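Private note to self, pasted from the team thread so I don't lose it. Backbone tokens:
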């Protein structure tokens, strides 16, 4: 099983923990194949809103001077994607949001109704399971907003399964890393 771990820059040293590296090590110890990408919003060009990735060059952003196309392609080719993002006012970190904006190429511009909700149609027949690990020191309301946001973002990709874990301190981070690993091994493994 291939897992793509997408981390923001803050996660490389949060409370003295490199969350992505710990997660990568834990997943690989269970026999999983991983690729770890540390996202840098400063290196990703902002989405132009031109929608060429939807209609002119389906599945490919016209901007090619950064890594967004490569990471978006790897996302679709993975069995699971884990987003590691600092919770910022109930939303994703700048680095994570910068990539998510550019990954719209992986969904179709057309809509369908699923369970009474309007959603994008699938561009591809298969999508990876999605796991989000939010960390930081959010208020209870920000934590609730983040969890809801992550689940709703996953709905557009319509993964076979999606999970959200959150952590506020070092102990919770280590516990969340184990929860993600257990989820990948038990509920996501094909």
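Design output:
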């Amino acid at each position: 099983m291939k897992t793509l771990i997408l981390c923001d820059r803050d996660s490389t040293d949060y409370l003295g923990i490199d969350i992505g590296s710990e997660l990568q090590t834990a997943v690989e110890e269970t026999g999983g194949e991983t690729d770890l990408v540390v996202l840098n919003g400063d290196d990703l060009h902002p989405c132009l809103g031109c929608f060429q990735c939807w209609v002119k060059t389906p599945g490919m952003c016209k901007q090619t001077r950064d890594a967004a196309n490569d990471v978006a392609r790897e996302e679709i080719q993975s069995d699971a994607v884990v987003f590691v993002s600092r919770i910022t006012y109930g939303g994703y970190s700048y680095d994570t949001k910068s990539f998510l904006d550019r990954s719209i190429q992986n969904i179709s511009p057309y809509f369908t109704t699923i369970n009474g909700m309007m959603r994008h149609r699938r561009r591809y027949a298969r999508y990876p399971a999605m796991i989000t690990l939010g960390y930081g020191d959010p208020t209870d309301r920000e934590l609730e907003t983040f969890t809801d946001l992550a689940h709703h973002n996953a709905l557009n990709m319509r993964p076979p399964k999606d999970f959200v874990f959150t952590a506020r301190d070092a102990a919770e981070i280590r516990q969340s890393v184990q929860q993600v690993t257990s989820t990948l091994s038990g509920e996501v493994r094909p």
